[in-house]
Automatic annotation (TrEMBL):
The lineage of its organism: Bacteria, Bacillati, Actinomycetota, Actinomycetes, Streptosporangiales. The chain crosses the membrane at residues 9-29, 35-54, 66-90, 102-123, 135-156, 168-186, 216-235, 255-273, 285-309, 315-337, 344-362. InterPro entries: Alkaline_pH_Ca-Antiporter, NaCa_Exmemb. Keywords: Membrane, Transmembrane, Transmembrane helix. It is found in: Membrane. This is Sodium/calcium exchanger membrane region domain-containing protein. Residues 35-187, 220-361 form the Sodium/calcium exchanger membrane region domain. It is a multi-pass membrane protein. Its main location: membrane. It holds the Pfam family Na_Ca_ex.
Amino acid sequence: MSLRYRRLAATWTVTVPILAVAVLALAWGRSIPPVVVVIAALFLASSVLAAVHHAEVIAHRVGEPFGSLVLAVAVTVIEVALILSLTVSGGPAAASLARDTVFAAVMITCNGIAGLSLLVAALRRRVAVFNAEGTGGALATVATLSTLSLVLPAFTTSKPGPAFSAPQLAFAAVASLAVYGLFVLTQAVRHREYFLPVEPGGHAADGHAGPPTTRAATASLALLLTALVAVVGLAKVESPAIESAVRAASLPQAVVGVVIALLVLLPETLAAVRAARRARVQVSLNLAFGSAMASIGLTIPTIAAASLWVEGPLLLGLDATHIVLLGLTIVVATLTVVPGRATVLQAGVHLTLLAAFLLLAVSP
């Protein structure tokens, strides 16, 4: 039975991403009927599960923190491509798209993924244990990138509106890429031990027995990228239906971006929760904070480069309400990270902040 189950899992995780991309190719750029919308939604959900499976295969082969880094960067690169295509084709209406998407990603990862992972781990083992040195460094990077890219534009005076001037935008782009690159170097090379899962006894754990072969890991990498293309592309295909539902419910247009961000971040969310269930909370936090900083560190330089040929303003500065939410998130996350241990209380506080963000997106 176990062998049959493994064969079934191997079959569907290979077939689903390929079929999902085929559905994406048929539906892309077309007005699709409700039946196709439902089919696309089913393939989107299945692709998320397939992406998580292949991400875990890769993580098993290369070990941590490389496994979580691969998933975070892969999702973000495809997400950035989607943002860029929407910005180029959206005209003036897409002036704040990059800001809204990046901020939604930061709030969902730092409060949603982190809070849910801490809740799962704390409910199973009373206390969620992780490495404060590595997680603290990741949080500091997220805080710096968020402030430089999303908060400062609301206060600069060189250009009207919550926007950078050309030199300021160039600095933010270079600084974001440099700081993110420095973090990756620290995480993957110089201080890799700070980002390894912590066992109940307090020692770092690196890997486990029976890793897959290089050939299997390479195949999973290709299928992971295929699944992520399907996830992000089908999220875009679903966006007209989401927009129609938002208009019918008389909700703000920003809700569309939040819903799409939630869909795109589903692979990381499921992977983080599954890691937390196995007491590998550090992996969950690597995914949460790694996805947040990758979203900023890769999106801002890309959008800055695109602004050279895309006409219209690029609005990056957050409004006062979102600045307060971001500041509170950073303070709460700092208090959560410093001890290297968290309970259900800390998890509940983070999830409350996510609920506040979602509520204010629906009712600003």
